[in-house]
Amino acid sequence: MKTLYKLSLLTPQSAEGFQAINLKGEGSADWSVKSYTLRGGLQDGVQVVEINNGKLSFAVLPTRGMGILRGQCGDIDLGWDSPVKDPVNPAFINQQERGGIGWLKGFNEWIVRCGLNSMGAPCTDTVLDYSGNEFDVSLTLHGNIANIPARAVSIEITDEAIILKGEVDETMMFGPALRLNTEIRTELGTGKMTITDTVTNLGGNPVEHQLLYHVNYGEPLLEKGSKFVAPIKQLAPRDPRAAEGIDAVGTYTAPEVGFVEQGYYYELAGKRGSRETMTMLRNAAGDMASVLRFSLKDFPCFTLWKNPAGKADGYVTGMEPATSYPNARGFERKKGRVITLAGGESRTTTLVIDNLDTKTAIKAAESEIKQLQKTAKATVHPEPIARFSDF
């Protein structure tokens, strides 16, 4: 592997700020990378890194916790049409707004992290300070990481891959001090992206950690007749509203104005030993799909979010691998699903997103999932269960 370029786009010590670049492959190579800063409106000051590997292209937002705004793989648009039209600078987000759901005022990415110290439903949680005293904290929807700008960004381009790295700190005095180091890697000429994230407790005291990837899709992958496919051990609706759709959990309808979102909690089956698993969303014709691959060691919990609402209101579905379910953190703690990182401890996870544009590749992925399903008997609960939901 030969390194063609290796550049720092942003460093904590830089007086110049975010570096603008425009690089292209030479000869038969068809890759490109460019970086720039948006101006005007709520997007003012948002940094963007656009990566094109020759087949798959996507735009990363260092200003928004290294989330990925959108993507394109051949004829497949990756992402969705949110009522939030532009990437929003975190300076304009009040996460406490409307009872702790202000996070939604910036929600329009294809791939957005939720965490690092908390994620899930807004709530009041009782925690201990470093002296062992109890006090209440107000936790907002899906935590802070998506609204924290990166402190360092670098790019490496080789003759085989493009690798973007970022460092984001969620830290405070007398509180959680967590650092995210992310590597977003894509091999040239493929529809695949690999996200490797390491979260480190920078402090000396133990701290709680939660992480969820909200991987969101609208048209054309999402349409009437689209299918969600996964190897199931257990599946239950999140709440009574989701229970209404349990018989059609793996299928999608056309946009429906007034649709109220539904969420489903999964315990997935995985390979023996490695516990590798996968999920897939494909269109009705079966010639476009996006596949998530991950280990249940990294992400033991999985949520399917269905929101086939009217197009103007956000026609979207989300595949969401996570360390826990997106309930109130106190509930997840009682169920033993909240991770604690010791002082100085790190945890590394890997998520692979593979975008498929042939019926042959999609049928092969479906066959893989069927093989995984043979390792477990699928149990589908018609109502919420106490193990998964506080309903």
Describe this structure in words.
The protein is mainly β and 391 residues long. The chain has a single domain (3-380), classed as Beta-galactosidase, Chain A, domain 5 (Distorted Sandwich). The protein has helices at 97-100, 240-243, 329-334, 359-373; strands at 3-10, 21-24, 32-37, 47-52, 56-61, 67-73, 76-78, 111-116, 123-128, 134-139, 152-158, 161-171, 177-187, 192-201, 207-217, 227-229, 232-237, 262-268, 276-282, 289-295, 301-308, 315-322, 339-341, 346-356, 379-380. Strands 1-11-12-13-14-24-20-19-16 form a 9-stranded antiparallel sheet, with helices on one face. Strands 8, 15, 17, 18, 21, 22, 23 and 25 form an 8-stranded mixed sheet that branches. β9 and β10 (134-139) form a beta hairpin. The longest helix is centred in the C-terminal third of the chain and has 15 residues, at 359-373. The N and C termini lie far apart (53 Å).
CATH architecture name: Distorted Sandwich
- How many beta-strand elements? 25
How many structural domains can be distinguished in the coordinates? 1
Element-level helix/strand string:
EEEEEEEHEEEEEEEEEEHEEEEEHEEHE
CATH class: Mainly Beta
**Helix content estimate:** under 10%
Measured on Cα atoms, how large is the radius of gyration?
Answer: 20 Å
Strands across the major sheet, in which order? 1-11-12-13-14-24-20-19-16
Quickly give the structural class: mainly beta
Euclidean distance between termini CA atoms: 53 Å
Coarse morphology: globular
The fraction of residues in strands falls at 35-45%
Which regions are unreliable across 5 or more consecutive residues at pLDDT < 50?
A: none
Q: What is the CATH topology descriptor?
A: Beta-galactosidase, Chain A, domain 5
Sheet with the most strands? 9 strands, antiparallel
What would the average pLDDT be, to the nearest integer? Answer: 96
